[in-house]
């Protein structure tokens, strides 16, 4: 599954990636002007019209003795969608693991297990208040879809230059984080302990 998504985002098959990207963008742009119920109903109606037309077309071919009239979707109808007990248990364990991991992360941030991490999250939410005042959620989703289908491809084409700039930014952020930890009590290494430790080593 992961490799298929990566192939879509890297445009390995231009036709498939283009079709998925166009479908997503068309659906999201429709949601900008119509309600989600209306868009979902029209998409479902469009899909049903396509499948019914193909089914009727096969029946017409059978009537004129140019086909067997078999259901063109029979292969999908014959697929076994039931889950075994082991598959159900494994899926339940994966879901429970994700829920526990999410709850642990939320507890870490909101109960201030690490002050610096909580401050960084607060800063992120503060920035998002300004972003939300400019864009609505659907616009951000559209921008996110555009980024998903362009950023990975651009990164692969210009990986060396991007890694260089990202490294510079990461180093600067590391220096800023170190300074913040040094100034906040309990998050940095006290200067006295560092000096005493160096004296001990010297002795």
From TrEMBL:
<keyword id="KW-1133">Transmembrane helix</keyword>
<dbReference type="GO" id="GO:0030182">
    <property type="term" value="P:neuron differentiation"/>
</dbReference>
<dbReference type="GO" id="GO:0071787">
    <property type="term" value="P:endoplasmic reticulum tubular network formation"/>
</dbReference>
<dbReference type="GO" id="GO:0043005">
    <property type="term" value="C:neuron projection"/>
</dbReference>
<dbReference type="GO" id="GO:0005789">
    <property type="term" value="C:endoplasmic reticulum membrane"/>
</dbReference>
<dbReference type="Pfam" id="PF02453">
    <property type="entry name" value="Reticulon"/>
</dbReference>
<feature type="transmembrane region" description="Helical">
    <location>
        <begin position="20"/>
        <end position="49"/>
    </location>
</feature>
<dbReference type="GO" id="GO:0014069">
    <property type="term" value="C:postsynaptic density"/>
</dbReference>
<dbReference type="InterPro" id="IPR046964">
    <property type="entry name" value="RTN1-4"/>
</dbReference>
<keyword id="KW-0256">Endoplasmic reticulum</keyword>
<dbReference type="InterPro" id="IPR003388">
    <property type="entry name" value="Reticulon"/>
</dbReference>
<protein>
    <recommendedName>
        <fullName>Reticulon</fullName>
    </recommendedName>
</protein>
<feature type="domain" description="Reticulon">
    <location>
        <begin position="5"/>
        <end position="203"/>
    </location>
</feature>
<keyword id="KW-0812">Transmembrane</keyword>
<dbReference type="GO" id="GO:0007420">
    <property type="term" value="P:brain development"/>
</dbReference>
<feature type="transmembrane region" description="Helical">
    <location>
        <begin position="123"/>
        <end position="155"/>
    </location>
</feature>
<keyword id="KW-0472">Membrane</keyword>
